[in-house]
Amino acid sequence: MAEAKRVERPLSPHLQIYRPQLTSITSILTRITGNGLIVGTLLAVWWLLSAAVGPEYFALANGVATSWFGDLVFFLSAWALWYHYLAGLRHLYYDAGKGLDIPTAEKLGWACIIGSVVLTVLTAIIV
Known about the structure:
This protein is an all-alpha fold. The chain has helices at 22-53, 55-65, 68-95, 102-126. Pfam families: Sdh_cyt.
């Protein structure tokens, strides 16, 4: 039998040839924001627990929480919370069997991204 000539190519879509799609990016962002919310939660819990430990320890935790780093963590946590919330609503819509065609899915993806940014800015202005 003649040997088959092997073609040298990836067996599955590889990062070098795969073009990320909006639906995959929003799915990855949902996972990242879900895990990223832990950072803001840990900072808030540390701040609250430090109040029970003592005034010196609270001064340290309050200094970190109200510094530029704390402001950045809480601002990004607000964005992550809004994004994760909107992505959850989108997922419920998908679970109902609606919006599964590509144009609608992309519109919903952009709605999650833009909506989370707008809601985060409004939250920062109001709070």
